[in-house]
Specification:
Layout: H1 21-36, H2 39-48, H3 64-71, H4 75-90, H5 111-117, H6 127-139, H7 143-150, H8 153-162, H9 164-178, H10 182-193, H11 196-221, E1 224-225, E2 231-232, H12 238-252, H13 261-281, H14 283-306, H15 315-318, H16 321-345
Antiparallel strand pairs: 1-2
């Protein structure tokens, strides 16, 4: 079975209009650009702008300024194409300027490669732009992307506020920069201490780090820090070190995004209890611990008492009954301590 399809009759009045030369030219130029990207414009500059060192008498090419005037754009823009072509020529991708003549056609690289050599933003020529471009290349991204972000800090802020992964990337980059930027370290430290929530968070993390360090010291070196503050350089009992190593392995297995605070507190409390048991089980360590604790309390009390002064006031005006009462009680307590210590030494106090 066949189908008959009636086609509309054409007449001179309904025939397609002849193709415009202007449309055809646009289509051809669009096709060239679609295949080659900026290389097409780079070639126009490379074959028409004379390189540095050549005079107008040596070549029919014109200066970048003259070419820009003819093109209706800035000389700076022309030079960005010029420099991109120059870098590609040094890499052997395209001919050097001296090898090209006005109107000459050459085989061009793929469009994607152009962005490796061309930096479209004017800031790229500055010292700051150069540093950003070099950092981008080191990270394996196009300089244009990094320069665009650097020129639009509001967009960067919006991305950090809205996207946790962007915020984490910014944090990692900021930490890397802090290592080489003392001024930024100071500024960030000031921001932290002036922000209550951050200050509390830093204090919490610092406490966790100290506790993890306490456990790590026992596990790795066998050093024990007692509740009285002694750091005893001795081999910790095997079971104590094993328990420290167990807690340490649990802490080391935590992911970066996990809160180590609770784990650190648990490990610290466990090890502290075991250290107390270890000290109490050794008569010599037990005596040494109590002596250290006594000395520590005595030094603190002495320091506080030494700070009491009447230098800036009239004692008569300053006087309160409870002051004398507290000092008398303190004197009695000190006397009792002296008596106990002398008695322990075997020296009886003088009768008075």
């Amino acid at each position: 079975m066949t189908l008959a399809i009636d086609l509309p009759e054409t007449s001179p009045e309904t025939s397609p209009a002849p193709l415009s030369d202007l449309v055809a030219r646009d289509a051809r130029e669009f096709g060239v650009y679609a295949r080659t990207g900026g290389w097409a414009f780079g070639l126009m500059v490379a074959r028409s702008v004379r390189p540095g060192g050549q005079s107008a008498d040596e070549t029919p090419k014109v200066s970048a300024k003259e070419f820009a005037e003819l093109a209706g754009c800035s000389a700076e823009r022309v030079m960005r194409y010029y420099k991109a072509w120059d870098r590609a020529a040094d890499d052997g991708l395209v001919p050097h300027f001296e090898e090209l003549a006005p109107g000459q056609e050459v085989e061009l690289p793929d469009a994607e490669v152009w962005l490796t050599y061309y930096v479209s933003r004017s800031s790229a020529g500055s010292e700051r732009g150069t540093a950003i471009a070099e950092a981008a290349e080191a990270e394996g991204i196009r300089p244009t992307k990094a320069l665009e972000v650097a020129e639009n800090p509001t967009a960067l802020r919006a991305a950090i506020l809205a996207d946790p992964s962007t915020a984490r990337a910014a944090r990692a980059a900021l930490l890397d920069r802090l290592k080489e930027d003392p001024d930024l370290q100071i500024e960030l430290a000031r921001d932290v201490v002036r922000t209550d929530d951050l200050k509390k968070a830093v204090a919490t993390e610092s406490r966790s780090a100290d506790r993890i360090g306490y456990v790590r010291q026992i596990a790795e070196s066998g050093q024990i820090k007692t509740p009285a503050g002694q750091t005893l350089t001795l081999d910790a009992p095997a079971e104590l070190r094993q328990e420290a190593e167990r807690h340490l392995s649990l802490l080391d297995e935590l992911n970066d995004d996990e809160d180590a605070g609770e784990w650190a507190s648990d490990a610290y409390d466990t090890m502290k209890s075991l250290v107390v048991e270890t000290v109490e089980a050794d008569p010599e360590l037990r005596v040494q611990e109590r002596r250290t604790k006594f000395y520590s309390s005595l030094q603190r009390a002495t320091k506080v008492f030494e700070e009491l002064t009447f230098d800036d006031v009239d004692a008569q005006e300053f006087y309160e009954d409870d002051m004398v009462q507290q000092l008398e009680e303190l004197q009695q307590a000190i006397g009792s301590c002296i008596t106990a210590l002398r008695g322990a030494r075997g020296t009886a106090p003088e009768a008075g």
